[in-house]
Amino acid sequence: MPVFKTPFNGYSVKFSPFYEDRLAVATAQNFGILGNGRLHVLSLSPNPSQPFTEIAAYDTADGVYDVAWSESHDSLLVAAVADGSVKLYDTALPPTSNPIRSLRTFKEHSYCVYSAVWNPRHADVFASASGDCTLRVWDVREPSSTMVFPPHEMEVLTCDWNKYDDCIIATASVDKSIKVWDVRSFRVPIAVMNGHGYAVRKVRFSPHVRNLMVSCSYDMTVCVWDFMVEDALVSRYDHHTEFAVGVDMSVLVEGLMASTGWDELVYVWQHGTDPRAP
Amino acid sequence: MATQSPTQNQNQGAESAEPAANVDQQGATEEPVKQSSTPLVFVNSEPMREEQVQNAVKFLSHPKVKGSPVMYRRSFLERKGLTKEEIDEAFRRVPDSAPTVQTGGVTQDGQVKSSSNIQQQAQPQALQPGLPASAGVNTSSATLSRSRFHWSHALIAIGVLAASGAGTAIVVKNSILPRLKSWIRKVVVEEDDEELKKLDRKPTLVEEAAQAAKSAAAAAADVAKASQDMLISKEEERKHFVEVVSLLDMQVQEMKSMTNALRRIEAQEDLRVTQTNTKQLIVNGKADYDLHSVRSTSPPVSYEPPSSLHPKSYMEIMNMVQRGEKPSNTRPWEVSQVQNSSTQVPHAQGNGEYLNSKVQDSTQSNGDGDDALPWWQRKNARIREIGNETEYNGNGSSYGVASNQPPPQRTWVPPQPPPIAMAEAAEAIRRPKPAAQKDQMSDTQSVGNSSDVSDEVTRIPRRSESEGAVEGGSSSSIPSTVEIQEDQELRRE
User: Fold this and answer.
1) Residues of B with CB below 8 A from A239's CB?
2) Positions of the WD repeats (chain A) (predicted)?
3) A180-194, B55-69, B140-154, B426-440: least confident range
4) Does B62 reside within a domain?
5) What CA–CA distance (Å, rounded) separates B117 from B136?
6) Using one digit for the tens of pLDDT, what is the confidence trace for B438-452?
7) What is the distance between the alpha carbons of residues B471 and B474, in angstroms, rounded to a whole number?
8) Residue ranges making up the domain that contains B76
């Protein structure tokens, strides 16, 4: 499997919903403590001697912690930058006119917002997970958040909506657990999944299988879970040598996953295969 | 506004799949065609819990809480699981706290709604800043008075210190100087006395000197004997040492020859990049193993440092930043930096190419027999390759448990250890040697083979089988495991 080496430490990787061979990688210098950042847009090519080609790379003044592709425009992506700004990029425009502009600010959390995810069914709803231990659900048409609840006793690092059931959301936290909730009855979780050795950094639901989700953690592993089953852990991948910080499942190719971490490597592999096999 | 919609839409169904195009904020939700109210299911539909509200009111009425920023109070209540409505109700009941949430700057043009929101919120906010302002003034004056206290305290302390310093200086001048003078006088007087005494003792001194000389001679003789003994022992030690050094040299030469052979193999392997799949997998394993053994003599990097969760280089950078230094590789940021992104692209591509050529990609071998699909869609091909790998492993490997299981696709397959390059060296190491030399051999081997520490763990189950085969086994564990490794590798051939 090919590996791409980024110059900075990786933070997040996302497949494009329009092109099955395209992905974006968010990186930050010096583990994100201090320094610049870079957003890479990579293309996977069938040419085996050069599996990754870099379509674009955007430098930022501070580390880029997360990136997301727009689901309505094939060349737009959004970067979450460590200085608190959200930057919009258009790969179709020349590099000099990027980034485009900062759009809107939602300010309600009292500590860092680690992750924000759009609801795949309802285009105006998104959820945000924050270090103040709460999860907030927002509607862009409303001036303030529509729902707030504390899914964990410790900082919530990530959240993701289920792609098949629009009211199910998963959260994961520093307390090493992943919980799946129904937002209509958010007092009790549907499922609690333990098994990571350290804080869980990112969760993603599979776009192809209703109950499947993938998570990556500071214990350097990427785990795949099925939350409707009693023994939820489906598989565990141990390929990173530093914190595994970003993981994504491709919408266009079933079973294709990508992960990145502080070891400055980006792995792309099929579920069920060995990511480190050549 | 936000509270109107949930009460109206609490009871409506939530099963629609169509996203709502427009939900009017005035509350009318029944619009023709494909409109639905399902987005508003993402709100709290629970009734307010009076008990929670009362607890919140008690919390907010506490004097300590009143001194804290509003954001923290709200955040605390949210963390306790109160809903928005409950928190708002509690804030309403406790009179002088400022509960509202503000949305930040909106920069889009033409958003009439958002601008009207801001206007509406600006008015209640104008009232509320008046209330916390008075509370703020009180606290600030308290702090000011405390700080003034601090200033006066500081001044007084400085004055006291200065006065005491001056006082001690004066005292020192007055007392120590005379003491010094008297001491000097004493010394001078003593010298005079000594001179007088010396003259008296001269005749007796001669006899004493003679006696002293005799005793000194006796002592010198003893010392000479002792030094001779020491010299003898030193020579013996030196002989031993020379022997040890010669043995070490032999070992070093053998190790050098082995590493040279391994390097030659490595070079040959790099040339064999285009060969078949299964061979490449083994080659990969060898290369990894070689890198491990050649480069590092410390435990592998993947082990987390026991002191902290973060990697060591992360802690280094954190320490640097805390000390106030900047890591050297950050670039000062300018507006024109965007232009550099295009120049970075070919550079990054060059890096990527270089590294990807190093990583051996098996897809070249797949090119002939497979479909026109790109590599990441060839799911079947993947599984077939791993099947081949497990076959080969089953035939030749005695490495570990994981590689022999049929469904290893999910777990990482550990790399294969290298086979023996020079049989003669392996034989030489394996042959039994005299006991004295063996002890020294153990030391050298432990130094040279610390890189194999990580593999020893997996080899321990094998130890019991092959211990019988080791001839004249020594007591230390490290040489025995090294010999076992060589045994295994020889057998594999």
Assistant:
1) 412
2) 106-148, 149-185, 193-235
3) B426-440
4) yes
5) 27
6) 455 445 544 444 444
7) 9
8) 50-93
Task: Dig out the tokens for A152 from the structure.
Answer: 């964990």
Establish how many alpha carbons lie within 13 A of residue A6's alpha carbon, considering only the half-sphere containing its beta carbon: 34
Instruction: Classify residue B165 as exposed, middle or buried by CB count within 10 Å of its CB (0-12, 13-18, 19+).
Output: exposed
Query: pTM, whole model, 2 decimals?
Result: 0.45
In chain B, how many domains are there?
1
Question: Which of B435, B396, B392 lies closest to B419, judged by CA?
Answer: B396
Residue A252, domain CATH: 2.130.10.10
Nearest chain A residue (CA) to B69: A110
CA separation for the pair A217, A261 (Å, rounded) = 10
Q: How far is B68 from chain A (nearest CA, A)?
A: 13
Q: Establish whether this prediction's ipTM goes over 0.90.
A: no
Distance in Å, alpha carbon of A103 to nearest chain B alpha carbon: 7
Secondary structure of B9-30 in the HEC alphabet? HCCCCCCCCCCCCCCCCCCCCC
C-alpha distances (whole Å) from A265 to each of A15, A269, B471 are 16, 13, 47
* Model pLDDT, residue B205: 82
Give me the CATH number covering residue B89. 1.10.10.10
Note the pLDDT of residue B236: 94
Q: How far apart are CA B117 and CA A79, in angstroms?
A: 27
Q: Tokens for B108, please give them.
A: 């889009």
Confidence of residue A144 (pLDDT cuts 50, 70, 90): confident
What would the two tokens of residue B222 be? Answer: 């003893």
Closest CA to A275 of A262, A251, A253, A256: A256
Q: Find the angle CA(B327)-CA(B332)-CA(B335) to the nearest 5 degrees.
A: 155
Shortest CB distance from B412 goes to which of A21, A31, A274? A274
